[in-house]
Design a protein that fits this description.
Chain lengths: ~375, ~230
């Protein structure tokens, strides 16, 4: 039997060629592929057999799925859900129980070494993985089975990429990101809580089109979406450079739309495409809505609060402590030591008439 | 100044001793240029993290953070270049130039000097006359200037790589730092803490330099200008 192409599947679902080409052009634009990109994607989706994408859910909140299903372009949502085989996706599949679990085994068996595994959420290792049970057994087992024979693994969201809130210190369930458990299969991290919908579809479309992973940085993120900071593309950057900051949520600067740096904006240390692609069909993104970036696509962002202050807490030095407060305490201690020594020197001089006794005879013997 | 490397050693207690040339022109120049850069870097760096009150008016008419950051990055480059220059001076000017990098803890003369400085600073004993870097100051310099200095250079260029992008040479050479921490916010915090350690150092350094100049039995501040260490009885 000839394996169907993505386009075949789309036609079955009643999607017109016009919408299909529209989607391809959009996807090419998100990826920055240039004028030929749309045609390349269309050609690939029309001719190459559809690669099944198995979508598993570990320890997560499903915000990645929510984001993905809300891919901006209205017609696109159908296309997008057709790109991945949603035969198995706990959240939205029709099947249930043993029947559903059997689908995973079928895909692994029939497409050994040629399916893409998409993982939303991470894998808790503590207590034999009891913190996340899927189909009656620890998620770890399902994940291991599916990962072993995958062609590549997409780690959706910050959970799968670096842990996210369920891995917050002290990480009681030992929630572990995907790439730390995988050795022989290529992993691509698509961080964000959730990732931008167009980034997610862009990544899938790229893999399906070119039959390879996009170029990754040293944190395994696709360079085309994660090589610039939010700060680099932020429309409030002019206010940053000018030195105009919101100082309180109700001040004039907040009304004027000044830079949110002093309100704890993490844009300067956050790699994501929010400031250029926007969310919800480009309508807005956190900073545009007047709230600083919390750095949700960065490793460890959950342990670097408070989000409304520029300098994160340093709890090891006490709650409410930060770099500057620690420094001030140190400087005060040092200042006190200096004052005590100076005072003692003066007192000694007044009492004995000299600062020290230089007649102690311990000359070096040379 | 002697031609080779001069180890730390004490001078006779009571005799009149001629002055000794301990610093060549390079080290002296480095010291004051470095001090200037560190002060510029501390002030601008402080404001990068905690910016001054906002400027009113149109954004296009001011560039306050822009200039602060420019000054910081330019001074940062100079600080890094000066550090390389200082290392080079160890081999060209010799004398006691290597003490900064290598407190001679394994040598008896040095450790005696170290404990003697502690006793002197606790006012339990008098000061001594010596050639070399004050051993106590040497330890302070190592932990409160040299190591944080290295930390600010490494994290500084790693943050610079964030600014100029992942195709830059800065990223090529310092990208691994980002990789260790994952979140580049950590680089800012380490950089900032290292600054505060250097500020502590400056407090102690200037105070002790003045104190020693007044109370000890040799010149300290003028030595960094003339290169000559003069001894008093
Ligand atoms: C005495 C040496 C230095 C001191 C005291 C110092 C201090 C600081 C401080 C306090 C910050 C702000 C950190 C924060 O809260 O975000 C900063 C930022 C920075 N420093 Fe330094 N620094 C020094 C040397 C350097 C060097 C050698 C470089 C390398 C060129 C450098 C590059 C940077 C960069 C790129 C930033 C971030 C600027 C930004 O966020 O736009 N610094 N520095
Ligand atoms: S609002 Fe945030 S991202 Fe935008 S310029 Fe200010 S600090 Fe940078």
């Amino acid at each position: 039997m000839k394996r169907p192409t993505t386009f075949d599947v789309l036609q079955e679902r009643g999607i017109s060629r016009r919408d299909f080409l529209g989607f391809c052009a959009l996807a090419a634009t998100w990826m920055g592929l240039g004028p030929q990109g749309g045609a390349a994607i269309a050609h690939a989706l029309e001719t190459k057999p559809r690669i099944p994408v198995l979508w598993l859910h570990g320890l997560e909140c499903t915000c990645c799925s929510e984001s993905f299903l809300r891919s901006s372009h209205p017609q696109a949502s159908d296309i997008v859900t057709s790109l991945v085989s949603l035969d198995y996706d706990d959240t939205i599949m029709a099947a249930a129980g043993d029947q559903a679990e059997a689908i995973v085994e079928e895909i692994i068996r029939d497409y050994r070494g040629s399916y893409i595994l998409a993982v939303e959420g991470n894998i808790p290792l503590a207590n034999d993985g009891m913190a996340c049970i899927v189909g009656g057994r620890p998620f770890k087992h399902q994940f291991d089975d599916a990962a072993r024979h995958a062609k590549a693994i997409i780690a959706w969201g910050t959970c799968a990429s670096s842990g996210c809130v369920q891995a917050a210190k002290p990480n009681p369930t030992q929630a572990t990101p995907v790439h730390k458990l995988i050795k022989n299969v290529p992993v691509i991290n698509v961080p964000g809580c959730p990732p931008i919908a167009e980034v997610m579809t862009g990544v899938i479309a790229y893999i399906l089109t070119y039959d390879r992973l996009p170029e990754l940085d040293n944190q395994l993120r696709p360079k085309m979406f994660y090589s610039q900071r939010v700060h680099d593309k932020c429309y409030r950057r002019a206010h940053f450079d000018a030195g105009q900051f919101v100082e309180r949520w109700d001040d004039e600067g907040a009304r004027q739309g000044w830079c949110l740096y002093k309100m704890g904006c993490r844009g300067p240390t956050t790699y994501n495409a929010c400031a250029s692609m926007g969310w919800n069909d480009g309508v807005s993104f956190p900073i545009k809505s007047g709230h600083g970036c919390i750095g949700c696509s960065e490793e460890g962002f959950w342990d670097r609060g408070p989000f409304y202050e520029r300098l994160p807490d340093m709890q090891q030095w006490g709650i409410e402590s930060n770099a500057d407060k620690v420094a001030l305490a140190g400087a005060a201690a040092l200042g006190a030591a200096i004052a005590v020594q100076s005072a003692a020197t003066v007192v000694k001089r007044v009492v004995t008439g000299k600062a020290y006794d230089k007649d102690s005879d311990d000359s070096p013997t040379s | 100044m002697a031609n080779g490397f001069v180890p730390y050693h004490r001078m006779p207690e009571h005799k009149l001793v001629p002055s000794v040339r301990v610093y060549g022109p390079g080290v002296r120049l480095w010291h004051w240029a470095n001090a200037t850069m560190v002060i510029v870097l501390c002030i601008t760096g402080y404001f990068i993290g905690v910016p001054p009150p906002s400027i009113l008016g149109d954004a296009s008419s001011s560039y306050v953070m822009g200039w602060i950051r420019f000054l910081h990055l330019a001074a940062g480059y100079l600080f890094a270049l000066l550090s390389v220059y200082r290392l080079w001076l160890v081999f060209t000017e010799r004398g006691i130039a290597h003490h900064l990098y290598l407190p001679a803890i394994w040598r008896k003369a040095w450790s005696d000097g170290f404990f003697r400085q502690i006793r002197w600073n606790l006012l339990l004993d008098g000061p001594v006359r010596y050639v070399g870097l004050n051993p106590l100051a040497n330890v302070a310099m190592f932990f409160m200037f040299l190591l944080p200095g290295l930390a600010v250079i490494i994290t500084g260029f790693a943050m610079y790589a964030e600014v100029v992008g992942h195709d830059s040479w800065q990223y090529f050479w310092f990208g691994w730092v980002t990789h260790i921490f994952g979140n580049t916010l950590d680089l800012h915090i380490i950089h900032r803490l290292a600054m505060w350690v250097m500020v502590w150092f400056m407090m102690a350094h200037i105070y002790i330099a003045v104190r020693e100049d007044i109370l000890s039995r040799q010149t300290v501040i003028s030595t960094m200008l003339s290169g000559e260490r003069q001894f008093r009885d």
